[in-house]
Amino acid sequence: MTVIRVDDVYKSYGTVQAVDGMDFAVERGELFGFLGPNGAGKTTTIRALTGQIRPDSGTISVLGTDPTDDPLETRSRVGILPEQGSPPSFLTPREYLEFVGIVRDLDPEFVAERTELWADRLGFRNKLETLHTDLSRGQQQKVMIAQAFVHEPEVVLIDEPLANLDPLVQEQVKRFLLEYAADDNAVFVSTHNIGVAESICSRVGIVVDGEIVAERPLEEGLEDGSLLDVFLEHVDEAGARDLPVADRVQS
Known about the structure:
Number of helices: 8
Oligomer: single chain
Number of domains: 1
CATH class: Alpha Beta
Largest sheet: 6 strands, mixed
Distance between the termini: 29 Å
Keywords: ATP-binding, Nucleotide-binding, Transport
GO molecular function, one term: ATP binding
Helix content: 25-40%
Strand order of the largest sheet: 5-6-7-3-8-9
Radius of gyration: 18 Å
Protein name: ABC transporter ATP-binding protein
Structural class: alpha/beta
């Protein structure tokens, strides 16, 4: 079943064409990688998927709803982890997750249980009563991951999920994302890190200059070389420069 569909979407900012005829679909059970260099249009696409901006043209559907027509309905059913997002500095992790629960109209006991679960899973139980201003960037990222999943959404949109996390926690998050997608949910991961895409994604769309220039399933390997080879081939064809390939990580 298709849970995300983007058809011929365009979005510009003045003379800059951020999204240029974007087309793709994501099915239940998939962990879809949205892979491209910085400035390829990935974040703009996520903002459109969550109803933060309206495309100039084209159509978007998330769980059967146009997110720009009903952003509150979309966000009530979708988990969102923005790139470099951070919790309010004046709240503790427990207070922030309680606030997220109130906004999403969740049962307080359910939120309390999920808070404990995520604090244990990501290792921030001893920081639950610490103000976010006193947490490291990595600890804040753990809390942001927790808020994206606290309401058990059917679809999760994640921008650079492993940023600021130490290697052990990265592996824990990877494992969880794979399990979550396999449980009849969908996980959409936007990244410029080829190693992240290789290690967790079942399918990858390569994004260059605001459009997907290639799609590849990864579960059974690639027939046309490594993902890095495919990525570089299509980026070179598009004439893109300054690729962040040097920060490729080993899975």
